[in-house]
Design brief:
alpha/beta; Aspartate Aminotransferase, domain 1; Aspartate Aminotransferase, domain 2; 2 domains; 3-stranded antiparallel sheet; binds pyridoxal-5'-phosphate; Aminotransferase_I/II_large
């Protein structure tokens, strides 16, 4: 008898956690994947109001409250010019649950899922939990996902490929021509393109493009949420948007693992999505300034960084020993190989941190680089 399922034994606690635990209490943490801003006041107020009015005590419908799904549909229209039926959306416990639903609903045992390498840690783990085989697709030197590499990796066993632009851990943004290619590949090869767009609003150079806007079939499934865009990681509110038949399959999973997303969070999310969006552009401008600071400082150190065009991460190519030396000096950065074998030789730096703190951390990094040479 086995004590635990081979699926759960095939995954482990994320390497990022290990890095946090190795650092001292006063360490500067550049390992975090959450914006350092408060949630919008109007989102918080909407949740409080819903709670006080007794609207948030009961289960909502499995897909979530209708006004939230209407706000999400309006968002698709506003940002991508795509008409989405509010019934083709499920509100989930963060983008994380949305990814889980997409994989559970589409991946059969032994089927392959192509994931960016380096890529967000959940793609590999959730694929394995679904019984699938993650197939890493190495990124280009500029850390974007190459559509040709995706197409080359497709086999008869491929169920899905994951696109994440802007990307974690890379900050890379796929240009429109690549996104069009992803849509074409999903159409022509009849595989699902899972487009994780949680960093959609943090693009500094160029624009965000979604394969949803370009596909002719219903093979694109979009995951998004409030965690990053509205700095609401603790609210645990995301969503998945797809065709009616795909949503129906994902709803089967959602119904049994979650029932519905948290009701107060749904009201907060509806307010965040339909209220003023200047909070988002303010965050974006701040992230851009910090990105520029980081690029300047790394250039001065002689450290190569593929220019991150979005999100709030950078992935410099660092000398051997860099991550450990930084952690020893109480600056937490994450080793690139925590995100896949092809991330080796890089470190991921999150700049969701105050500019002053970032400067202090960059001074330490400059010292570390000088000492390692
Ligand atoms: C690329 C990416 N997708 C999805 C998520 C999931 O975020 P959440 O579950 O908070 O919406 C994250 C969080 O770090 C992420 O970086």
């Amino acid at each position: 008898m086995t004590e635990f399922s081979p699926r759960v034994e095939s995954i482990s606690i994320s390497g990022i956690r290990e890095v946090f635990e190795a650092a001292g209490e006063d360490a500067i943490n550049l390992g975090l994947g959450q914006p350092d801003f408060p949630a919008p006041d109007h989102a918080r107020a909407a949740a409080v109001e819903a709670i006080e009015a007794g609207k948030a005590d009961a289960y909502t419908g499995n897909k979530g409250i209708r006004p939230l799904r209407e706000a999400i549909a309006a968002k698709h229209e506003r940002d991508q010019g795509v008409a989405v039926d509010p019934d083709d959306v499920i509100a989930t416990a963060g983008g994380s649950e949305a990814l889980h639903l997409a994989l559970e609903a589409h991946v059969d045992a032994g089927q392959e899922v192509l994931i960016p390498d380096p890529g967000f840690v959940s793609y590999d783990a959730l694929t394995k939990l679904a019984g699938g085989e993650p197939v890493p697709v190495p990124l280009r030197d500029d850390l974007t996902l190459d559509p040709a590499a995706v197409e080359d990796a497709i086999t008869d066993d491929t169920a899905m490929f994951v696109v994440n632009s802007p990307g974690n851990p890379t900050g890379a943004v796929s240009p429109a021509e690549d996104v069009r290619e992803f849509a074409r590949i999903a159409d022509e090869h009849d595989v699902v393109c899972l487009s994780d767009e949680v960093y959609e609003h943090f693009v500094f150079d160029g624009d965000h493009h979604s394969p949803l806007a370009y596909a002719d079939t219903d093979n694109v499934v979009v995951v998004n949420g409030c965690s990053k865009t509205y700095s609401m990681t603790g609210w645990r509110l995301g969503w998945v948007t797809a065709s009616t038949r795909r949503i129906e399959r994902m709803l089967r999973v959602h119904q049994y693992i979650q029932a519905c997303a948290s009701a107060p969070a749904q009201y907060a999310a509806e307010a965040a999505l339909s209220g003023p969006q200047d909070v988002v552009s303010e965050m974006r401008d701040t992230f851009r300034e910090r990105r520029d600071l980081l690029l300047d400082r790394f250039e001065a150190m002689g450290v190569e960084v593929p220019t991150p065009k979005g999100a709030f991460y950078a992935m410099p190519k660092v000398p051997e020993g860099f991550v450990d030396a930084c952690i020893e000096r109480d600056v937490i950065v994450v080793p690139g190989d925590a995100f896949g074998a092809n991330g080796a030789g890089h470190a991921r730096i999150s700049y969701a941190n105050d500019a002053e703190v970032l400067r202090e951390a960059l001074d330490v990094m400059a010292d570390v680089v000088a000492n390692l040479r």
